[in-house]
């Protein structure tokens, strides 16, 4: 993981920064969300995955207070987003997808202007706003600080979006498709920024993405949303175990390659060594990748084999996750 | 620093930044200078013609009306147009995501519009004072000009914001532009309203444009020209009354309509407008 992160840091088990129980959304006679339940803890990075139209953006917009829900209990930083005031808003960070807004503004000019709004909301443990020069360096826009927003490339503009989202030192950060248009290096740097926010500042982070490897690297926990319901909730590893009970074991012996599929990889490998000892070479045990896991969940949902997916609830954070119990019903 | 002070300051900074952007941008500058230039040329060409029996230059008598029209235009059309554009491009949503960002946005818009209007006014007034003999501004005239300007801004900007909130598609500005042009036609800017049929006079006098023109004429034309006006009077109190009434109406309506509009802003609303705009641009 990225430099500067205390690897032993575990998210605190306190009141969740996000608590959603049976969130429903209906437009006209079309149901978009059919009763979502989940939580996000402070310092936790949660990735919301799902096919287009599954309701990811709707969910995030309800939590951001930009959209009224049809029913259900929603609490963000202890406040109902439908009634959130400006002091509540000051504790949130929203990374928006920019297009051409503020195109005549210079990068630093815009960031300094936005930063100024947060000053009255500083607290002892959370100085607000963040230092703008430092922030520009963090997101890698130092050489572009005096450029106009319209002169930035797509990736640079996304970095600015991220900077705007975190300039107020948010306690909860929402990221909708944050790395769309990033090159691999920028993506790497962005991941570092997000990990640091979660680890060092205890910021709760909820992001949507289509990039499954990104979700796997970044998220402590994955939520898979399909057809308006959360069909899976757990760490990437736990989800993968649930989907394919079997692990793929490959090894070579005497220059020949072997593959076996087994539900109990450890025992299999032990027996392998007992049997062949040092002859075993190139050993690899592989579980399903998040991509395969994701496809399995979405496929199960689409083919209507609810029996599998409804039973899945693998949140690893015991005692902290009320939503686990809720979504089982 | 308290929250209101912070927000007020941020709004002022926003307005100042946007003024700098508009005055350092060739396209925007051209947008100020070109219409002023065209109006001045047209008025120069009218110089040889005179107003009725007064012997006064028709061109000079049109100048103050054009200045009044400019204020109405900035307050109504420029505010409406910016609101529609900035809703489409996500500027509004960005501000909505900031604590008190919408208030700051509005303060910034007021500063920007007033600044733009002052510049547009000076671009007509300063050359006009040199070109046309009859134009005169004494201390009393300056006072009337300032009062009419301030009241005119207060009367038009909130209504402009309401118009801008009701339309979400920049192409629909055309629907606003047409009635606006018609209204200018019956507001006595280029031709004395007193010469129109009475029912048209009544319609013209309902809207702020006529009164902005009248107020500006009263501030810088010689008193002899009052005979051209309805009732042979500059009707200052009526001017202040009608402009004031529009200001009150706007200030009551605008917060309600703006709040309703802002409530509907979200990432997906901006995204769908973006898609529509992309389709429009081909």
3D architecture notes:
The complex is a heterodimer of chains A (329) and B (282). Chain A has 329 residues and is an alpha/beta fold. Chain A is globular and about 70 Å long. Chain A has helices spanning 56-64, 86-89, 107-116, 132-138, 154-166, 184-201, 212-218, 236-243, 265-276, 290-302, 306-311, 322-328, and strands at 18-27, 30-40, 45-49, 71-76, 92-95, 172-176, 204-208, 221-226, 229-234, 247-253, 256-262, 280-286. Residues 1-7 and 306-329 of chain A have low confidence and may be disordered. Chain A starts with 17 loop residues before the first strand and ends with a helix. Chain A is built from twelve helices and twelve strands. In chain B, strand 1 (50-51) and strand 2 (56-57) form a beta hairpin. The N and C termini of chain B lie far apart (48 Å). The mean pLDDT of chain B is 91. A two-stranded antiparallel sheet of chain B has the order 1-2. Chain A binds chain B through residues 57-58, 60-61, 64, 66-67, 86-87, 89-90, 92, 94, 96-105, 109, 113-114, 116-121, 164, 168, 176, and chain B through 1-3, 6-7, 9-10, 13-14, 17-18, 21-22, 25, 86, 89-91, 93-94, 96-101, 104, 265-268, 270-271, 274.
Please give the structural blueprint.
The complex is a heterodimer of chains A (329) and B (282).
Chain A: E1 18-27, E2 30-40, E3 45-49, H1 56-64, E4 71-76, H2 86-89, E5 92-95, H3 107-116, H4 132-138, H5 154-166, E6 172-176, H6 184-201, E7 204-208, H7 212-218, E8 221-226, E9 229-234, H8 236-243, E10 247-253, E11 256-262, H9 265-276, E12 280-286, H10 290-302, H11 306-311, H12 322-328
Chain B: H1 3-23, H2 26-45, E1 50-51, E2 56-57, H3 58-88, H4 91-96, H5 101-131, H6 139-166, H7 173-185, H8 198-206, H9 208-220, H10 236-263, H11 267-281
Antiparallel strand pairs in B: 1-2
Helix pairs in contact in B: 1-5, 2-3, 2-5, 3-5, 3-6, 3-7, 3-9, 6-9, 6-10, 9-10
């Amino acid at each position: 993981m990225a430099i500067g992160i205390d690897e032993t840091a575990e998210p605190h088990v306190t009141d969740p920064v996000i608590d959603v129980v049976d969130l429903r959304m209906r437009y006209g006679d079309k149901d978009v969300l059919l009763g979502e339940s989940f939580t996000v803890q402070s310092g936790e990075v949660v990735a919301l995955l799902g096919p287009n139209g599954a309701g990811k953006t709707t969910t995030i917009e309800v939590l951001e207070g930009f959209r009224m829900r049809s029913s259900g209990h929603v609490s963000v930083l202890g406040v109902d987003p439908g009634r959130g005031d400006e002091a509540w808003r000051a504790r949130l960070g929203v990374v928006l997808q920019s297009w051409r807004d503020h195109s005549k503004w210079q990068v630093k000019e815009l960031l300094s202007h936005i930063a100024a709004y947060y000053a009255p909301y500083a607290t002892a443990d959370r100085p607000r706003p963040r230092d703008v020069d430092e922030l520009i360096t963090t997101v890698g826009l130092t050489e572009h600080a005096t450029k106009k927003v319209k002169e930035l490339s797509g990736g640079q503009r996304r970095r600015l979006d991220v900077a705007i989202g975190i300039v107020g030192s948010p306690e909860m950060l929402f990221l909708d498709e944050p790395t769309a248009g990033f090159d691999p290096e920028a993506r790497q740097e962005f991941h570092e920024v997000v990990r640091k926010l979660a680890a060092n500042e205890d910021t709760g982070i909820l992001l949507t993405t289509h990039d499954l490897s990104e979700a796997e690297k970044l998220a402590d926990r994955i939520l898979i949303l399909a057809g308006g319901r959360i069909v899976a909730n757990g760490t990437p590893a736990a989800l993968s175990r649930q989907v394919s009970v079997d692990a793929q074991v490959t090894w070579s012996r005497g220059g020949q390659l072997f593959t076996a599929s087994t539900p109990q990889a450890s025992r299999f490998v032990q027996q392998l060594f007992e049997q062949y000892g040092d002859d075993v070479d190139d050993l690899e045990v592989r579980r399903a990748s998040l991509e395969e896991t994701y496809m399995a969940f979405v496929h199960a949902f689409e083919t209507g084999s609810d029996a599998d997916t409804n039973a899945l609830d693998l949140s690893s954070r015991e005692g902290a996750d009320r939503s686990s119990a809720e979504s089982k019903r | 620093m308290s929250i209101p002070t912070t927000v007020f300051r941020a709004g002022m900074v926003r307005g100042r930044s946007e003024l700098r952007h508009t005055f350092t941008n060739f396209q925007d500058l051209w947008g100020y200078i070109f219409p002023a230039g065209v109006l001045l040329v047209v008025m120069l060409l009218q110089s040889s013609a005179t107003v009725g029996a007064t012997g006064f230059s028709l061109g000079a008598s049109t100048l103050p009306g054009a200045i009044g029209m400019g204020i109405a235009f900035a307050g109504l059309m420029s505010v409406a147009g910016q609101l529609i554009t900035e809703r489409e491009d996500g500027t509004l949503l960005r501000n909505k995501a900031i604590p008190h960002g919408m208030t700051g946005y509005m303060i910034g818009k007021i500063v920007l519009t007033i600044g733009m209007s002052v510049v547009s006014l000076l671009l007509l007034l300063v050359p006009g004072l040199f070109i046309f003999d009859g134009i005169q501004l004494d201390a009393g005239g300056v006072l009337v000009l300032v009062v009419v300007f301030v009241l005119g801004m207060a009367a038009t900007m909130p209504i402009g914001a309401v118009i801008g909130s009701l339309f979400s598609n920049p192409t629909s500005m055309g629907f606003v532009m047409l009635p606006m042009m018609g209204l200018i036609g019956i507001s006595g800017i280029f031709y004395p309203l007193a010469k129109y049929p009475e029912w048209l006079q009544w319609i013209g006098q309902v809207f702020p444009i006529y009164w902005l023109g009248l107020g500006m004429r009263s501030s810088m034309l010689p008193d002899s020209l009052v005979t051209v006006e309805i009732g042979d009077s500059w009707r200052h109190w009526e001017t202040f009354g009608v402009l004031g009434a529009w200001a009150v109406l706007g200030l009551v309506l605008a917060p309600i309509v703006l709040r309703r509009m802002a409530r509907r802003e979200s990432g997906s609303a901006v995204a769908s407008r973006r898609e529509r705009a992309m389709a429009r641009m081909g």
